[in-house]
Design a protein that fits this description.
Layout: E1 5-9, H1 15-24, E2 28-32, E3 43-46, H2 51-58, H3 63-73, E4 76-79, H4 81-86, E5 87-91, E6 100-105, E7 116-122, E8 129-133, E9 138-142, E10 147-152, E11 155-161, E12 164-167, H5 178-187
Parallel strand pairs: 1-2, 1-3, 3-4, 4-12, 5-6
Antiparallel strand pairs: 6-9, 7-8, 7-10, 10-11, 11-12
The structure holds glutamine (GLN).
């Protein structure tokens, strides 16, 4: 595939920053606001924001099953609230798509006023990665099939399972394209 078209779930939250990041990398995007918008896309970004609000919109009509179906075959990147939506298990309990075999604890890095920038060690080439943590979820458990690509203080912050990628931080707000490049590579079938 020459250049994929990547959907960005645009119901709420930080979707515009993901679009800017992908456009800067020369990747075409489409905003996904209803299930029909998924047709023909090569992958999907689920942005940060507020997972309960995003859930509210996703549980209207047949959006939820359409998204689950899409994610069985297409790569995805979930950041922060998007990671919460992709997880298999969420604390406190809320519905999730069950795409990534992780348990996440919402708001575990503190409240809005505890938002901070930290550094993560990563197995990706290019050295430590900047972490923008905004009411971020902590990955408290990860199944054997989950690859940890970055961690901070011993906790995974960037994970991949097959063609699903999740991170607890707002990579779209950093000047670092490595996480989005993972998604683009997955869309090109170059994991
Ligand atoms: N705390 C939010 C939630 O639980 C996630 C925050 C974020 O995406 N920056 O959905």
């Amino acid at each position: 595939m020459a250049s994929p078209t990547i959907g960005v779930l645009a119901l709420q939250g930080a979707y515009a920053a993901h679009q800017r990041m992908l456009h800067g990398m020369g990747v075409a995007t489409r905003e996904v606001r209803q299930p029909q918008d998924l047709a023909g896309l090569d992958g999907l970004v689920l942005p940060g924001g507020e997972s309960t609000t995003q859930l509210h919109f996703l549980q209207q009509g047949d959006f939820w099953p359409a998204l689950q179906q899409f994610l069985t075959t297409r790569p995805c990147l979930g950041t922060c609230a998007g990671l919460i939506l992709l997880a298999c298990s969420v604390q406190p309990t809320q519905p999730s798509l069950g795409v990534l075999d992780v348990t996440v604890q919402r708001n575990a890095y503190g409240r809005q006023r505890d938002s901070r920038i930290r550094q993560a060690d990563t197995t990706l080439p290019g050295g430590p990665m900047e972490l923008v943590l905004i009411r971020a979820p902590r990955i408290v458990d990860a199944g054997a099939a989950v690859q940890v690509l970055a961690q901070c203080d011993g906790d995974p912050v960037l994970v991949r399972q097959g063609h699903a990628i999740g991170c607890s931080f707002h990579t779209e707000l950093c000047n670092d394209t490595r996480v989005h490049q993972l998604l683009v590579n997955a869309c090109r079938n170059e994991l």
